[in-house]
Design brief:
The structure is a single chain. By secondary structure, this protein is α/β, with parallel strands linked by helices. It folds into two domains: 22-65 and 313-419, Aspartate Aminotransferase, domain 1 (Alpha-Beta Complex); 82-307, Type I PLP-dependent aspartate aminotransferase-like (Major domain) (Aspartate Aminotransferase, domain 2), CATH 3.40.640.10. It has helices spanning 11-14, 19-26, 41-52, 68-79, 95-109, 124-136, 151-159, 178-184, 207-220, 259-262, 277-287, 296-307, 312-333, 359-370, 383-386, 405-419; strands at 3-4, 30-31, 36-37, 55-56, 119-122, 142-147, 163-168, 189-195, 223-227, 253-258, 271-275, 337-339, 346-350, 372-373, 375-376, 396-400. Helix 7 links the parallel strand 6 (142-147) and strand 7 (163-168). Helix 2 runs antiparallel to helix 7, helix 4 runs antiparallel to helix 12 and helix 5 (95-109) packs parallel to helix 12 (296-307). The longest helix is centred in the last third of the chain and has 22 residues, at 312-333. The two termini are 36 Å apart. It binds pyridoxal-5'-phosphate. Pyridoxal-5'-phosphate is lined by residues 60, 124-126, 150, 195, 199, 227, 229, 258, 260, 266, 269, 271.
């Protein structure tokens, strides 16, 4: 199954024209009546949770802080002569940072990168995503993504003047539908957007699936952007396959990742784009006029984490896995139908066993009356999907489990007693 924004190709007529409004509409954050921008769904849920005194299982940030030794390294760089100065670092990133990204890709995945030509620092993965999409999504072309998607993809595709088409990921296991992807891709496709491990489903694409996607992109002459920010949050036996480890990806794919999820330091906004020298050079063309550069101290501290995580990845996975099991049981006990994720921060739960309402309406009730904030998955889908009563994505809520266990326990108790 394949969708575009309106289901019948009059996308441009329905999109507002000013660039700011296109970006907002592309991410479901444009208020058509007020002709104004709404905050993101994550910010709206956080604000609603705060004003109702609810526990916020909406936005994906951990309760805990990242490793103390990384924070101490950043503080040292800011306040002493150790490390970089507090002045502009190079636009492509500090050499020590780019070398650490290259070494990390080699150690974890056997991917060889030239730190001078194949690694580009970005201000968080968000800037890497924006720069990649604005570099390769041709105006008037189509960009294909799996749905639900990370909201910035919709904003940037719309801002680029391209059209987003989606291939739904379906419960219970949310595997990428390769046949559907092949049908969605055409000579009009300029990009394919991947996110593995995937937010919000927690699906980890296999090497075979990644290889199929790369083959489809090559045949279509499309560029792949692979968002890999959850690369170190895989559970059980699931292993992350970076796109650049797939033979044939070299000249068609760029990968995006960041420090935020891997080290529980989401506020640092240190990201990176990797790929062939030619593609990374293209992304630089846009990136250097977005932020140009930022955060020398955080780049320096991130380099230390990437060189040696001192066991943090394994410890973080273990904690998240235990939280995942707790929330899986709690959601099931409350009567919902949760789907066990293979990675990431989130559990998607089908609400239809307990209500006929849409997830958007049910989320509004939960935050107000049950005391728990969650994200309706429909906020991360196209308007055509939101209007489709047959789409299971309209009846799913996303619960973040990257929180302390006592907080999760309280949230689950509240959910259970309110629903029952
Ligand atoms: C799939 C995905 N990509 C990118 C980002 C943004 O990463 P960063 O905070 O490094 O900009 C997030 C954050 O939630 C995400 O979930």
């Amino acid at each position: 199954m394949v969708r575009n924004i309106d289901g019948d190709h009059d996308y441009d007529e329905r999109m507002p024209t000013p660039p700011w409004a296109r970006a907002a509409a592309g991410a479901n954050t444009y208020d058509h009546t007020a002709e104004a921008v709404l905050p993101t769904v994550y910010e709206r849920t956080t604000a609603a949770a705060m004003s109702a005194g609810s526990i916020n299982l909406g936005q994906g940030f951990p309760d805990g802080e990242g490793p103390l030794w990384m924070r101490a390294a950043a503080a040292e760089a800011i306040t002493t002569d150790a490390g970089p100065t507090n002045q502009y670092p190079p636009g492509i990133g500090l050499p020590v940072f780019r070398e650490a990204v290259a070494a990390h890709q080699q150690t974890h995945y056997g991917v060889e990168l030239d730190p001078d030509r194949q690694v580009l620092f970005t201000t968080g993965a968000t800037e890497g995503i924006a720069a990649s999409i604005l570099s390769f999504a041709e105006p008037g072309s189509e960009v294909v993504a799996f749905e639900p998607w990370y909201d910035s993809y919709g904003a940037m595709v719309a801002l680029a003047g391209a059209e987003l088409r989606t291939v739904p990921l379906e419960a219970p296991d949310f595997r990428p539908d390769i046949v559907g992807l092949r049908a969605a891709v055409s000579e009009r496709t300029s990009m394919i957007l991947l996110n593995s491990p995937h937010n919000p489903t927690g699906a980890v694409f296999t090497a075979d699936e990644m290889a199929e996607i790369v083959t489809i992109a090559r045949q279509a002459g499309a560029v792949v952007m692979s968002d890999e920010v959850y690369e170190h949050l895989t559970f059980d036996v699931s292993a992350h396959t970076p796109v650049l480890s797939i033979p044939g990806s070299e000249d068609v794919a760029v990968a995006v990742s960041s420090v935020g999820k891997s080290f529980s330091l989401t506020g640092w906004k240190v990201g990176w784009v990797t790929g062939s020298p030619a593609l990374v050079n293209c992304v630089r063309g846009v990136k250097q006029f977005l932020s140009f550069t930022s955060a020398p101290a955080y780049q320096w501290a991130t380099a230390q984490g990437l060189q040696d995580d001192r066991g943090f990845f394994a410890q973080n996975q273990e904690q998240l896995q235990s939280a995942r099991e707790m929330v899986m049981s709690g959601l099931a006990a409350a009567g919902l139908r949760p789907h066990r994720p293979a990675a990431g921060y989130f559990i998607l739960a089908d609400i239809s066993p307990v209500t006929d309402k849409s997830a958007a309406d049910f989320a509004a009730e939960l935050v107000e009356h049950a005391g728990v904030g969650a994200i309706p998955v429909s906020a991360l889908t196209l308007p055509s999907t939101q209007q489709d009563p047959g789409s299971a994505l309209n009846y799913m809520l996303r619960f973040a489990f990257c929180k302390n266990e006592p907080v999760l326990e309280r949230a689950l108790t509240r959910l259970s007693s309110w629903i029952r």
